[in-house]
Design goal:
Blueprint lengths: L1 E6 L9 H13 L4 E9 L6 H11 L3 E6 L5 H11 L4 E4 L11 H9 L4 E9 L3 H17 L8 E8 H10 L6 H8 L4 E7 L11 H15 L2 H30 L9 H32 L7 E5 L11
Parallel strand pairs: 1-2, 1-4, 2-3, 5-7
Antiparallel strand pairs: 3-8, 4-6, 5-6
């Protein structure tokens, strides 16, 4: 009998964890051909999430808990959970019920057809119109600039076959989002449409600034196009500056006694070129930051405590 690992990343989800566990358990019981394990990686929550997780894990051995030493961000926490999973396939979904637990069934049906990667795609989202519009713009920008195919409105709901997980683990690059990495590796992707629901309880830890940071990081991780833009604009700016300089020089030679350019063109030119330089230095800095993170080899996360991982050393949480 094949085994399915369901990963539910958590951060300050005390109000949703137990309800999510009950909902997933109910859905799993209707899948008679599989056994399930439920992995809850907690990214150093500041509420009582870990206490709730410990309570559930003490009552059900199929629930495995990973408590990180600090908040490493969703990507690194999720990767660590993938690598700890023992199932023939891994399904991940958000703990806030925006990804319906019932979606595990259509994901499994596609996997049974031989598809190694199945993404849930949000064809309808019950969220703020402005945020949805910004998110749509982000996907279009990434899709346009990315050097590999990118799917719009895919995020936390997806299924990966164990073969894919092993390949991702061998690459040892947890900085890039799994959606981009999968496409870059050349795996075929099947999309399953679903409605992205409203958050059940609690408040999301993500705000506009964190989304913006995520967007910039993903753009830099998936495309060299911004660097090419910087090179192109640098060349064009240099050419225009040279032409303008020659025009002013010739004009001054012809009208030596009457032509007075003044300081305005110089000031405007300096501010223009200065702003362009600062912008593209920022772009180059983003790429350097990515390079530094990739070259500085660190563990995906450091675990403070693990629960119900049989055969592995488990630390007591004092």
């Amino acid at each position: 009998m094949k085994k399915i690992s369901i990963c539910v990343p958590c951060y300050n989800e005390e109000a949703n964890i137990e309800n999510m566990y009950n909902a997933l358990k109910k859905e799993a019981e209707s899948e008679k051909d599989y056994t399930f394990e439920f992995i809850f990686p907690d990214n150093a929550s500041k509420d009582s999430s870990r206490e709730v997780l410990k309570k559930i894990a003490s009552q059900d051995d199929s629930v495995k808990v990973i408590i990180n030493r600090r908040n490493y961000g969703p990507k690194r926490s999720n990767y660590n959970a993938f690598f700890r999973a023992t199932g023939d396939a891994i399904i991940t979904l958000a703990c806030d019920f925006q990804d319906p637990p019932s979606m595990i069934h259509p994901l499994l049906r596609e996997w049974e057809k031989g598809n190694l990667v199945v993404f849930g795609q949000k064809t309808n989202a019950k969220e703020n119109f402005i945020m949805h519009s910004i998110r749509t713009l982000y996907y279009k920008i990434i899709k346009y600039f990315s050097s590999v195919k990118h799917y719009e409105h895919v995020s936390s709901l997806f299924l990966l076959d164990k073969e894919v997980v092993d390949t991702v683990k061998a690459i040892d690059d947890f900085e890039i989002d799994v959606h981009h990495l999968i496409e870059d590796l050349g795996y075929g992707v099947v999309l399953v449409p679903y409605t992205h629901e409203k958050r059940a309880k609690g408040k999301s830890s993500y705000n506009f600034i964190r989304y913006f940071d995520f967007a910039i990081t993903e753009l830099v991780n998936t495309s060299y196009f911004p660097l090419r833009i910087a090179t192109f604009f640098g060349f064009i700016s240099s050419f225009i500056s040279f032409v303008v300089g020659m025009v002013y020089f010739v004009y001054k030679l012809i009208f030596w006694n009457t032509f007075n350019a003044g300081a305005a063109p110089i000031v405007i030119g300096l501010f223009l070129l200065g702003s362009i330089q600062i912008t593209f230095l920022g772009i180059i800095g983003e790429y350097i930051g990515v390079i530094m993170r990739k070259l500085t080899k660190r563990p995906v996360v450091l675990e403070e405590e693990t629960i119900n991982f049989s055969g592995e050393k488990e630390e007591a949480n004092n």
